[in-house]
Amino acid sequence: MSIEIRGPLELPARREDIVLETADGLSLVGELAMPESSSGPVATLVTLHPLPTAGGFMDSHIIRKAAARLPALADLAVLRFNTRGTTSPRGTSDGAFDGGAAEQFDVAAAMDFVRERGLPRPWLLGWSFGTELALKYGRQHDVEGIILLSPPLHRATAAEVAAWADSDVDVVVLVPELDDYLRPPEARERFASIPHATLIAVEGGKHLWVGESQTRRVLTEIVAAVNPTALPLPTEWPSA
Predict the structure, then answer these.
(1) How many other CB atoms are found less than 10 A from the CB of residue 199?
(2) Which of these, 28, 44, 201, 240, has the minimum number of CB atoms within 10 Å of its CB?
(3) Are 171 and 197 in contact (CB under 8 A)?
């Protein structure tokens, strides 16, 4: 017997509540989800959630489902956390929202944690506001790639985007066809300054990726970039 993988279903993983300490003295609450296998993860997703002033947090659904599914389905470690001043059921991170400026210390704290734990092949996975943090600050850290979901390009400047052209880091951009802020034609123009960027226009997609079909598409594209040998992702899981 098996059960369909959909919605809030949480697959087996080793889950640990963590606290990240920033260079400016704040404590950020989060969770690390790891594969159950003794061999450990093949790569690491460091997730950056949507805008907290618009309801974004570490449990925003794509990030929560990545943590719930991908350790089991794709042997990935998934680190998620609340940026400064953000609240979720896990708790509230110290500090206050700073519009993407002081959040650079939050990104750095997550990357320090990855290094201290020896987690392999880190990728930054940003969604909406989280893509701005990845673009603005990701080049300061040792990452294998960045994955941008629904980038609005409200805070990342043209110069900050173009700076990735000089990096050998993979840049994968998922742009919903029906996005509220940046749709594929404009996205192609604004990311043209990164010749090696891979831009994926998602037909029928919307900014919030609502619905199981969109969730599966996003998780599939993430795994295609980070651990393609795990594809295709199963849609069912053996029941207990």
Answers:
(1) 18
(2) 240
(3) yes
Q: Do 44 and 121 form a contact (C-beta atoms < 8 A)? A: yes
Cα atoms found within 13 Å of the Cα of residue 119, Cβ hemisphere only: 28
What whole-number distance in Å separates Cα of residue 211 and Cα of residue 20?
31
pLDDT tens-digit profile of 16-35? 999 999 999 999 999 999 99
Tokens 């992702």 found at: 233
Q: Using a CB cutoff of 8 Å and minimum separation of 24, what contacts does 175-178 make?
A: 175/150, 175/151, 175/199, 175/200, 175/201, 175/202, 175/205, 176/150, 176/202, 176/204, 176/205, 176/206, 176/207, 176/209, 177/201, 177/202, 177/203, 177/204, 177/205, 178/204, 178/205, 178/206, 178/207
Between CA 200 and CA 188 the distance in angstroms is 10
Residue 79 burial (10 A CB sphere; 0-12, 13-18, 19+): buried
Three-state secondary-structure class, residue 6: coil
* pTM greater than 0.85 (yes/no): yes
pLDDT in tens, 190-201: 999 999 999 999
Q: In angstroms, rounded to a whole number, what is the distance separating the alpha carbons of residues 107 and 123?
A: 12
CA dist., res. 56 & res. 61, Å (int): 9
Sequence-distant (6+) residues with CB within 8 A of 24 are: 95, 102, 105
pLDDT interval class at 1 (50, 70, 90): confident
Q: Please, which residues have CB within 8 angstroms of residue 221's CB and are 6 or more apart in sequence? A: 147, 172, 174, 200
Tokens of 74: 């794709």
Place of tokens 């790569």: 43
